[in-house]
Amino acid sequence: MVERSVGLRVLSHAVMWLGLLVVTFPLYLAFVAASHTPAEIIAVPMPLLPGGHLVESFKAALFGSDGPGSTAPVARMMWVSLVTALVITFGKIAISLLSAFAIVYFRFPLRNFFFWAIFITLMLPVEVRIMPTYKVVADLGLLNSFTGLTVPLIASATATFLYRQFFLTVPDELVEAARIDGAGPLRFFKDVLIPLSATSTAALFVIQFIYGWNQYLWPLLATTSEDMYPVVIGIKRMITGGDAANEWNVVMATAILAMVPPALVVVLMQKWFVKGLVDSEK
Fold this sequence. Notes:
Low-confidence stretches: none
CATH superfamily of the domain at 74-230 and 260-278: MetI-like
CATH architecture of the domain at 74-230 and 260-278: Orthogonal Bundle
Number of helices: 15
Distance between the termini: 27 Å
Helix content: 55-70%
Oligomer: single chain
CATH class of the domain at 74-230 and 260-278: Mainly Alpha
Mean pLDDT: 85
Order of helices and strands: HHHHHHHHHHHHHHH
């Protein structure tokens, strides 16, 4: 039993508020910078209170600016990032569900070998195989396309492993009951396994969406056209040189916009995300 000490409670709250301050202060600085002109931002000391140019900064970010770096509209970048993240997320979930279902419920030769072959790919992330992957994508003419941005990242050994472990906990009596009722493999998969794994799928959706949204290295190689930049690449392309050469207000506005979709996904799916990770009655 945890002792309810006033001092311990005060200390725990102080640590919590300190952590909150460490996390939110950079966000506040980005918001302040987005509300000032570039000249005001590089002035010493930098203003710590919001200015009056917030709307202009977000408008320039969304619809394009005349800065020295990338001038592509952030609205287009956000669309590219959203499509990429959703395709990667749903692709990973669909492929992982089907592969785990096949490994657990079908008896075929070398079944365990294929599972371990999938699992070992955890040691081969995209950073390790990036050059041969780029060569294949380039030879197929898939650079600067949604296919080239998503297909090389769509498989997930982690999600396959998690679904496999969950399917192994499904009682055999449930499988027998479905078979007695005349349910075939696909109907059992659709009507029983998918609903049962809803919380796990929700948790994976949050993780994989953020993974797809924050991709940097692969889009850096796979895109050379501004109209196919995801927003993470767009932020980097906006920064060209010294402080005076950049529109920091537009850069910070873009950074704030880039944080909105993953933050919304986490907030809206927080209940399902936590339940999918800690639910013991799955």
